[in-house]
Amino acid sequence: MSKAKKIVAFIGVMGLGAILLGGSQYAMKATNSTEFCVSCHSMSHPQAEWEGSVHFSNRKGIRAECSDCHVPQDTLHYVKAKVIALKDVWHTFVTNKLPDQEAYEAHRLEMAQRVWKEMKANDSMTCRSCHSFDAMVLSDQKESAQKMHKLAQETNQTCIDCHKGVAHFMPDIQLDNVAAGELSKHGAEFTTSDKTLYTLAMTTAQLPQGGEVRLLPYAELHQWKEEGEQVKATIKGWQQEGAESVVYMDLGKRIMVALLPDEAQSKVNIVNTVFDNVTNSNWKEINVEIIAPKTAVTANIMALNQFGDNLNQTHCSGCHAPIGADHYTANQWIGVVNSMKDRTSMSADDVRAVTIYLQRNAKDIAGSSH
C-alpha cells in the first residue's frame, strides 16, 4: 500500500472513530434527558409521582431530573447504568412488561428493591452529588433530623438506608394478618420439651412471696413448670445500680425484660455484680421467680419475631422503607424508634413490641442465643 493510501486509510479510521465516539456521546447525553426517560408509556406512572414530590418542586427552586438520581456520573457506574437501562427498552418494545398501571404496581416492589440495592452498593452516589454531610448545618435541622444524621455519620450509613420513597411511591407490602392480628392464639403453645418460654405482650406476673412484676414482650422464662392454668418460672437479667426498677436482658444492653415495683426489688436474687466502664456504674446480674398465666406465654419465638417484623414492615414504611433490625445496635434502636413513633399509628404496646424485636435482632445481638 502506498504512503498516500495509508494516510487516507488512517484519516478514514480516525474519522470513523470520531463519528462513533461523537455519536455515542450524543446518544449517552440524549438518553440522560428526562424527556427521553418519560417517553415510554410505562414511565408515565413514576413521572406523575416525581412531579408531586419535593424533588420536582420546592421552595428553593432546585429540581432533580431522572438522571440526577438514577445515573451516577463516574465512568464505571455511568456505563453500568446505561447497560442495565437497555432492559427497559427491551421490556417496552418487545415484552410489553408494563402495559398499564396494574402491571406497574405488580412489579413496583421488585423494581424498587433493584434500585435500592444498586444505590446501597454505590453508597448513594447520586444522592451525594447534591447532599453531603460536610455541607450540612445540622443545627438548622429539626431535632429528629439532627439526631438521625449524626447517627448516620457515626455508623457509616448511606442515604438510601433511610430515604426511600422520597420521589416515588413506596411499594405496598402485604400485611401478615396472622402475625399482626392473631398473635394471642399462640398463647400456651408449648410442650414439656421446650426449654424457654416467651411472653406475648406486656403481662402482669405474680411473685410467689407476694407482690407482682410486669413482664415486657419477649421476656424469657427459664426453668419453667406448668401448674394448672399458670406457669411458674424464673426470669433472668441485669439491673443497673440506682435504677433497680428495670430488668434488662444483658449487661449494658437496654433491652427491657421486666419492670419491678419497689416491693418486688427486694425479692430478687443477686448472682453477680459487675462494674461497666461504658455506663460508669455497677450492674447486678439477678434472677427472680414469677408466676404468669400460661395463655400469656409461648415457646413459638418465630411467631413473635414474625409479629415484630410485621410491625416494622407495615408501620415503619410511611416515610421510608423498613430498616433491617441489624442496622443499629440494641441501644441505638431506642432513640431511633422514639424519634419516629409519633409519625405512626402504633399503640404504646406496639411500640414496645417493635422496639424489643428490633433490639433483640440488632447488629450487636444478632446471632446470639436470643
UniProtKB/TrEMBL annotation:
GO terms for cellular component: Gram-negative-bacterium-type cell wall; plasma membrane. Heme 3 binds at residues 127, 130-131. It is found in: Cell inner membrane. Binds 5 heme groups per subunit. It is a single-pass type II membrane protein. Transmembrane segments: none annotated. Pfam families: Cytochrom_NNT. Heme 4 binds at residues 159, 162-163. Residues 5-172 form the NapC/NirT cytochrome c N-terminal domain. Its main location: membrane. The keyword Iron applies. Heme 1 binds at residues 37, 40-41. InterPro entries: Cytochrome_c-type_ET, Membr-bd_4haem_cyt_TorC, Multihaem_cyt_sf, NapC/NirT_cyt_c_N, NapC/NirT_cytc_sf. One of its GO terms (biological process) is anaerobic respiration. One of its GO terms (molecular function) is heme binding. Heme 2 binds at residues 66, 69-70. It comes from the Bacteria. Heme 5 binds at residues 316, 319-320. Keywords: Cell inner membrane, Cell membrane, Electron transport, Heme, Iron, Membrane, Metal-binding, Transmembrane, Transmembrane helix, Transport. Belongs to the TorC/TorY family. This is Cytochrome c-type protein. It comes from Mannheimia pernigra.
